[in-house]
Amino acid sequence: MRASDIRSVLLSGYHHSLKENIIAILTGTFVVSQGVFFLQQADLLTGGTTGLALLLTQFVDLSFGQLYFLLNTPFYLMAWFRMGKGFAVTSIISGGLVSVITDNLHHVLEISRLEPLYCAAIGGLLMGLGMLILFRHQTSLGGFNVLVLYLQEKFGLSAGKLQMGIDISILVASFFLVSPMVLALSVFGAVLLNLVLAMNHKPGRYSGKMVTS
């Protein structure tokens, strides 16, 4: 689906300005990065390419940001051909910002004590809020976000419910690689993340068209 096709099904007549889209991308990626940081502090996981990147950091000598961007690359290509160049470019920028911000947060933020349950809750909620901001400005972080947004626009399916199904499947597949407690807390965080999306990002509820001025 091209960007023009997406615009044709949007119900709202409101146009996001370029300045609004830039602010939204900066805000959304910053909020998502905070959520990932909290998950990292408790060695927790989540779904999608974020969870895969967090898991792989335990086995390979690459940072989260490096792995995250590499894992998202195929989905950026999908976005380019299926959802338009504009969507693809903003998704690449958003994913790149999350990679850079998350890898450098330890330079400005150090927390001596955190309960894993709190990390799961705040991490999931912050990631959900940040992704919601990006979705509402017709962009994403790449990864399975691209797939679920495409399916929502094409078939009217709930992006939040689709994302939840994918995320839970990935976490369940990690059963033999992490402890039961880490897995349980990770699932809890992923459920909160996707509840934010499922309740607030439904077809036709809110949309804005990207413009260049």
From TrEMBL:
What is the membrane topology here?
Multi-pass membrane protein
Specify the domain of life of the species encoding this protein: Bacteria
Question: Which keywords describe this protein according to UniProt?
Answer: Cell membrane, Membrane, Transmembrane, Transmembrane helix
A GO CC term attached to the entry: plasma membrane
Query: Where exactly are the transmembrane stretches of this chain?
Result: 21-39, 83-102, 114-135, 182-200
Task: Report the subcellular localization.
Answer: Cell membrane
One Pfam family per UniProt: YitT_membrane
Q: What is its main location?
A: membrane
Q: Which PANTHER family match?
A: UPF0750 MEMBRANE PROTEIN YITT, UPF0750 MEMBRANE PROTEIN YITT-RELATED
Protein name per UniProt: YitT family protein
- Annotated organism of origin: Photobacterium chitinilyticum
